[in-house]
Design a protein that fits this description.
The chain is of the alpha+beta class. The protein has one domain: 3-Layer(aba) Sandwich (Aminopeptidase). 30% of the residues lie in helices and 23% in strands. It has six helices and six strands. The chain has a six-stranded mixed β-sheet with strand order 1-2-3-4-5-6, with helices on both faces. Helix 1 (23-33) crosses helix 2. The model has no long low-confidence stretch (mean pLDDT 92).
Length: 162
């Protein structure tokens, strides 16, 4: 859709070039640290990565941060899987990553951008996100334990003490 974006920020590479990102490291963080993707299969993360607009933060070959838009590039986007490794937080990395994503010309034309978070509301408010204005019009199907259920059915070991 857009040209590849890549620049240096405080010694980190901020990039939308998927060939420079590490899906295995993204997957590892999601299953070990996220509250929304416990036991998510690698294949699911890879498929989501392949079909999303992604941005990453890379340093010395390590995936330091990541975020993605699930989008049609015309009307709507859903911001997902945002993270910065703990040892690299408090340096403005999440803000530079979000600002880069949100200020793309095609993003400026979207009618709606959504996200779900349990603990980072103050970060997203800085970028104009607000609570759902008309929750009575919003509906959803939520399956928070689906990856764990799949893992159990497959007989995979599930990490539960995170």
């Amino acid at each position: 859709m857009d040209r590849t974006i890549e620049f240096d920020y405080k010694g980190y590479t901020i990039t939308t070039d998927k060939t420079k990102m590490h899906v295995d490291q993204i997957h590892k963080w999601l299953i070990e640290k996220s509250y929304w993707a416990e036991a998510i299969p690698y294949e699911t993360v890879k498929t989501a990565f392949d079909h999303s607009y992604c941005i990453g933060i890379i340093k010395d070959g390590v995936q330091i941060g990541y975020a993605r838009f699930v989008t049609d590039y015309a009307i709507f986007a859903y911001l997902a899987d945002v993270f910065v490794l703990e040892d690299h937080r408090k340096q403005g990395l999440s803000k530079i990553m979000l600002a880069t994503m949100l200020h793309q010309p095609w993003v400026d034309k979207l009618r709606g951008i959504r996200l779900a978070t349990m603990d980072a509301q103050s970060l997203y408010e800085q970028f104009g996100f607000v609570k759902t204005q008309q929750p009575e019009r919003q509906m959803e199907i939520v399956r928070p334990g689906i990856y764990k259920e799949w893992a159990t059915k497959r007989g995979d070991a599930v990490i539960t003490d995170i």
